[in-house]
Amino acid sequence: MINIAIDGPSGAGKSSIAKKVSERLGFLYIDTGAMFRSLAYKALTLGIDIPNEHSRLREMLSQTHLTIERIDGSQHMILDGCDITDKIRTPEVSKAASDIAVIDFIRTWLLNLERSLAKQNNCIMDGRDIGTHVLPDAKVKIFLTASAEVRAERRLKELKEKGIETTFSEVLAEMKYRDKQDSERKIAPLKKADDAHLADTSDKNFEESVELILDIIKTEIK
Ligand code: DC
């Protein structure tokens, strides 16, 4: 199987770019952030204090069934039999996902799911630690980034389109909190793999970014 790893900070455009590139290549797109978000969503609905109640989190995991379904080509997260895809994009879940992602047993639990999906499919997997940790032997690795301001603008637009009310400064602050926590955590931090291509999309629109990533992949796969 050909596996492509795309990592980078929140709001770099990983999901939308990786989804489009996957369609063009006929590969499966796997969004690992949605997996962390799904577990964070369940912890929030159970009222678990994520940093301080690890035993409740372990118990939650032992009673959690998380699967991925493709509906009209999109990845849907099915948590304990319910489709929660449209519930995991709120700023509250974003923060909780970053908080839950520092916990070792959460990452181990998801690692099995991530690796088994990659084993069975030609895929583009996006996240924070795919090139460094989840798929160290990925055929192509890309670290996708953009300036914090550009990322916050893009995220604000996305949230507004979903009807979620927030401001630029709130989005920027949340993004900086997550960038710091995701890159400074001890286990599998957000980091460019030594053999990853760096792709900065600050000055590129969506189509240009897609072309840039396709060029990198085609050159490597050839
Ligand atoms: O990509 P995203 O914004 O949906 O990810 C949500 C959070 O999940 C992110 O702040 C950090 C965590 N995450 C991670 O630690 N490792 C991954 N491979 C993917 C996401």
Explain this structure to me?
The model has no long low-confidence stretch (mean pLDDT 95). This protein has a 5-stranded parallel beta sheet with strand order 2-6-1-7-8, with helices on both faces. Strands 3-4-5 form a 3-stranded antiparallel beta sheet, with helices on one face. The protein contains 9 helices and 8 strands. Helices cover 51% and strands 17% of the residues. Strand 4 and strand 5 (82-83) form a beta hairpin. Helix 2 (33-45) crosses helix 4 and helix 4 (91-100) packs parallel to helix 8 (168-184). It is globular, with a radius of gyration of 17 Å. The protein has one domain: 3-Layer(aba) Sandwich (Rossmann fold). With 222 residues, the protein is α/β, with parallel strands linked by helices. 2'-deoxycytidine-5'-monophosphate binds next to helix 2, helix 4 and helix 8.
* CATH hierarchy class name: Alpha Beta
Low-confidence stretches: none
Q: What portion of the residues fall into strands of 2 or more residues?
A: 15-25%
- Please identify, by name, the CATH architecture: 3-Layer(aba) Sandwich
Radius of gyration: 17 Å
Ions and ligands? 2'-deoxycytidine-5'-monophosphate
